[in-house]
From TrEMBL:
Residues 59-300 form the Heme haloperoxidase family profile domain. The lineage of its organism: Eukaryota, Fungi, Dikarya, Basidiomycota, Agaricomycotina. This is Heme-thiolate peroxidase. Belongs to the chloroperoxidase family. SUPFAM superfamilies: Cloroperoxidase (SSF47571). Gene3D superfamilies: Chloroperoxidase-like (1.10.489.10). Its cofactor is heme b. It comes from the Eukaryota. InterPro entries: Chloroperoxidase (IPR000028), Chloroperoxidase-like_sf (IPR036851). Keywords: Heme, Iron, Metal-binding, Oxidoreductase, Peroxidase, Signal. Transmembrane segments: none annotated. Residues 1-15 form the signal peptide.
Amino acid sequence: MKLLAILAFAYATYAFPAASRSKLTETLNERRTLNDLRIRQSDSDPVAVVDGLTQIPDDDHPFMAPGPTDQRGPCPGLNALANHGYLPRNGIVTQADIVSGTAAGFNMGGDLSEFLALIGIAYDGDLITEKFSIGGPDSRTSLLGSLQNILGVEGGLDHHGPFEADASATRDDAFFGDDHTMQPNLYAQMKSIAAQYGGLYNLDAMKDLQLLRYQQSIEMNPTFYFMPVSGPLIVGAKAFISEFFSNGTYGAGGVPNEASISAFFGAELLPNGSFTAVPERFPDNWYRRGTPFGLVEAIGQILDFISSKNLAFGANAGAVNSFVPLDLAAATNVNGLACIIRDAIQGNIPSSVEQPIDLVEQAISSLVGLVDPLFDDFGCPAFNASETQAYNAINQINSGNS
Ligand code: HEM
Ligand SMILES: *[C@@H]1O[C@H](CO)[C@@H](O)[C@H](O)[C@H]1NC(C)=O
Ligand SMILES: *[C@@H]1O[C@H](CO)[C@@H](O)[C@H](O)[C@H]1NC(C)=O
Ligand SMILES: *[C@@H]1O[C@H](CO)[C@@H](O)[C@H](O)[C@H]1NC(C)=O
């Protein structure tokens, strides 16, 4: 309860300016209308329109299963990229690797990939080398190599915290142990929802899935936590399934079909009808989306998911079905939600400091400096130092130092 009280304070004292509809919000709405007009395929006979699109992978990026020391983790997108060499095959990555790899493989917008990579570095990686592991902790991320273990462990994306979240599509909540391996029964559950939409993993299906996983976490996970930063991001990851894994451009003739989705999730169908986990890969005969999907689109989708399914932010208070909602009143438009996410990130960098303090101070201010410009167009108010203090208090409580 103490944690929630502080969070409530942090947001209650935070006044957003009257919702200014930025040009970006308008652009987003225009694009949506355009996309609606372009959807021509019927659910019963969906044939992807891929004219002019790029087939992925190219000859330089063949599939190779990861070796024993290669890191793979909770993100099927990054795992697939690494299995094809669009990211370093060892799974130890820099921001530059992420930006170029996600653009080449999936046409992810540079602002979105920079943003996600920054979170990976700040929460799960090394502030100084700016490397993180896309799986478990790994001394190769650290400037100090194995010496780092004395100072503290950089968790990698497997690390449950500000990034890895509860209510994933195909991964169990960290409370149940393994938060990063694809669970065949969860894949089958997702598939059964897609079946209600003609077998398509479209946005409506993914919204139903998000609501179901949210309810399951409330009912089964006493530690369920759904707050910025990780909460909105786990919602965004559901939209990624339709938007990035679709064969062709989603909303413009693309089809998020079983062949595509199962390959990306590494879900192999066995003769008896159940699934087993295999390394993620690009499907055969697959075409990357033609238009970039960036930060504005991602935050727009997150807001759409949250509002259409009434997903309240909050957390279970140590028991199942004890959800305490927290009213983030400002999360009603794209700009408001964007600013909440930005502030939560800045207030939280880094979640644990385990490195020489002078180097870290420099690294933090340079990271915070990199986050701000990404959010320029959302018209966020200047970052409020009192919030930093609130978040610092939260971090202390989280790490048992209070
Ligand atoms: C750009 C850098 C990226 C980073 C740092 C990143 C990181 C992550 C992390 C930490 C998770 C775990 C969330 C959780 O289960 O709690 C995740 C999940 C996910 N990511 Fe990524 N990701 C990135 C890019 C992508 C891309 C390009 C795609 C798709 C092409 C993608 C698709 C997904 C999906 C679908 C999930 C959800 C898996 C599930 O819930 O079963 N991600 N990502
Ligand atoms: C920062 O927060 C304090 C309350 O903690 C509030 O009085 C002040 O107006 C806020 N400043 C800005 C710029 O939002
Ligand atoms: C993608 O669409 C193209 C064109 O319709 C088709 O030939 C190809 O088989 C599809 N690939 C997948 C994985 O469904
Ligand atoms: C399906 O087959 C696999 C592999 O042979 C086996 O491990 C699994 O238990 C079977 N599942 C069911 C429901 O029979």
